[in-house]
Write a structure and sequence with these properties.
Elements lengths: L1 H7 L6 H8 L8 H17 L23
Length: 70
């Protein structure tokens, strides 16, 4: 939801708030619905000419090939 905050200055930036703003259907805490809503938000940014990857804070983003042990 940092994308929504940085791209459109939406506050608060919880998923339900952003979905409401853009009229995106959401069944919050349903994994498929949450993932679909996030994808629609990213697609909306791309259509608006925003490069979501440029908004990623490289210092805070952590990528790993290893799944956490459970």
């Amino acid at each position: 939801m940092k994308l929504a905050r940085r791209a459109w200055d939406i506050r608060p930036t919880k998923l339900p708030d952003v979905c409401r703003r853009f009229l995106i259907r959401l069944q919050h805490h349903n994994a498929l619905s949450d993932a679909t809503a996030c994808a629609r938000i990213v697609m909306r940014a791309v259509k608006a000419g925003i490069d979501p990857m440029r908004l990623v804070d490289a210092k805070k983003a952590k990528w790993t090939d290893n799944a956490p042990d459970r």
